[in-house]
């Protein structure tokens, strides 16, 4: 029997980051020592108090269904967290999801129909494009590689790219894959264009708690943006809870009502005891601060190591990634780096920006040093 698959799936490719990670795992299974700088996952364990909260929740019997949008205690805590960021969303305007990726998927499915235009800022996280294509949307893209990945100098390019036909703009600050944190002036430029052309904006703030000497602004706090911004965040990065799969989004209540249909008919709800662990996470500060300090030290280390090989990079202000300029054929560069140097990176073309490789410095200083040394020894720098 030959199965025929839908266009919404055949027009997208598997996640490039996960594909590289899978190849690295295959080599490791064959006994090869791979320095994996490809994965967007903190190398720190989930803080013990959060783990204990999850265990306690299971012991207390929190193993059944919850309301689809999430337990009220967690939504109230998220509402308070958002208020601290300057956003006004009650629990009824929040949906708790199995990871922030699910939140983004539900928003795009709720807002985008066949032929709708969605604007991306390149380099853009790999799954944005796939989600838009699965919804039948069309992409317009703004290249930030000529402005050290900052948006403010490229506002004219964004203005030229959007129009009254643009339904959705996705903004990710701090950014994956660049680590850029967009300035208030850049976000005000986004606001002006969104209001002028009546564009809904997704503000993906999954790395908001991981910054170095800058304080990122939430788009929804700007005048004119409260009713047109959907804010996405989660627990994977800041609290090292990637495998727990817990995220959320907040937005206008009519969007929550419509996206809630998809949520209830697909994932039903986030895992009960994981939501209780999320409650504890929102009260966790010291381990997060320690992790961010370590990431900053690692960022500085990698920049120094690259400078020794005459490789200049735009300094990340947040997240734990940087874009490294490589050969024009970045796919071949990354494949060769894995095969020859046994160092896993992600090609920039996966993010819409050829000629770069994304390096994650969510690895120990020892592994980072070894990875850069191997790449240099094999002639990749």
TrEMBL record:
<dbReference type="GO" id="GO:0008483">
    <property type="term" value="F:transaminase activity"/>
</dbReference>
<comment type="similarity">
    <text>Belongs to the class-I pyridoxal-phosphate-dependent aminotransferase family.</text>
</comment>
<keyword id="KW-0808">Transferase</keyword>
<keyword id="KW-0032">Aminotransferase</keyword>
<dbReference type="InterPro" id="IPR004838">
    <property type="entry name" value="NHTrfase_class1_PyrdxlP-BS"/>
</dbReference>
<dbReference type="InterPro" id="IPR015424">
    <property type="entry name" value="PyrdxlP-dep_Trfase"/>
</dbReference>
<keyword id="KW-0663">Pyridoxal phosphate</keyword>
<dbReference type="InterPro" id="IPR004839">
    <property type="entry name" value="Aminotransferase_I/II_large"/>
</dbReference>
<dbReference type="InterPro" id="IPR015422">
    <property type="entry name" value="PyrdxlP-dep_Trfase_small"/>
</dbReference>
<dbReference type="GO" id="GO:0030170">
    <property type="term" value="F:pyridoxal phosphate binding"/>
</dbReference>
<dbReference type="Pfam" id="PF00155">
    <property type="entry name" value="Aminotran_1_2"/>
</dbReference>
<dbReference type="GO" id="GO:0006520">
    <property type="term" value="P:amino acid metabolic process"/>
</dbReference>
<feature type="domain" description="Aminotransferase class I/classII large">
    <location>
        <begin position="33"/>
        <end position="375"/>
    </location>
</feature>
<dbReference type="InterPro" id="IPR050596">
    <property type="entry name" value="AspAT/PAT-like"/>
</dbReference>
<protein>
    <recommendedName>
        <fullName>Aminotransferase</fullName>
        <ecNumber>2.6.1.-</ecNumber>
    </recommendedName>
</protein>
<dbReference type="InterPro" id="IPR015421">
    <property type="entry name" value="PyrdxlP-dep_Trfase_major"/>
</dbReference>
<comment type="subunit">
    <text>Homodimer.</text>
</comment>
């Amino acid at each position: 029997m030959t199965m025929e698959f839908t266009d919404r799936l055949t027009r997208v490719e598997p996640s490039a980051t996960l594909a590289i990670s899978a190849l690295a795992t295959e080599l490791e299974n064959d006994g090869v020592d791979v320095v994996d700088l490809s994965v967007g996952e903190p190398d720190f364990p989930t803080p013990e108090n959060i783990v204990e909260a999850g265990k306690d929740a299971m012991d207390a019997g929190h193993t059944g269904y919850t309301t689809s949008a999430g337990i009220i205690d967690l939504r109230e805590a998220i509402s308070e967290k958002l208020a601290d960021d300057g956003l006004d969303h009650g629990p009824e305007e929040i949906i708790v999801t199995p990871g922030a990726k699910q939140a983004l998927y539900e928003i795009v499915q709720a807002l985008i129909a066949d032929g709708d235009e969605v604007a991306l800022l390149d380099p853009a996280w790999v799954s944005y494009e796939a989600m838009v294509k699965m919804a039948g949307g069309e992409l317009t893209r703004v290249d930030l590689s000529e402005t050290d990945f900052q948006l403010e100098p490229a506002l004219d390019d964004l203005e030229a790219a959007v129009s009254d036909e643009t339904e959705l703009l996705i903004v990710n600050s701090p950014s994956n894959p660049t680590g850029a944190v967009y300035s208030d002036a850049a976000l005000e430029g986004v606001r002006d264009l969104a209001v002028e052309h009546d564009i809904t904006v997704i503000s993906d703030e999954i790395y908001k708690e991981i910054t170095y000497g800058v304080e990122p602004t939430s788009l929804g706090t700007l005048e004119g943006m409260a009713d047109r911004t959907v804010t996405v965040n989660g627990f994977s990065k800041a609290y090292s809870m990637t495998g727990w799969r817990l995220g959320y989004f907040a937005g206008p209540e009519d969007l929550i009502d419509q996206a809630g249909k998809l949520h209830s008919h697909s994932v039903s709800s986030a895992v009960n005891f994981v939501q209780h662990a999320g409650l504890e996470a929102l009260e966790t500060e010291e381990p997060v601060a320690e992790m961010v300090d370590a990431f900053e030290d690692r960022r500085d280390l990698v920049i120094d190591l690259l400078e020794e090989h005459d490789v200049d990079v735009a300094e990340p202000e947040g997240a734990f990634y940087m874009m490294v300029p490589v050969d024009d054929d970045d796919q071949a560069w990354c494949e060769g780096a894995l095969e020859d140097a046994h160092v896993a990176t992600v090609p920039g073309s996966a993010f819409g920006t050829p000629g770069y490789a994304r390096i994650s410095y969510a690895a120990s200083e020892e592994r980072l040093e070894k990875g850069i040394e191997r790449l240099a020894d094999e002639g990749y720098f």
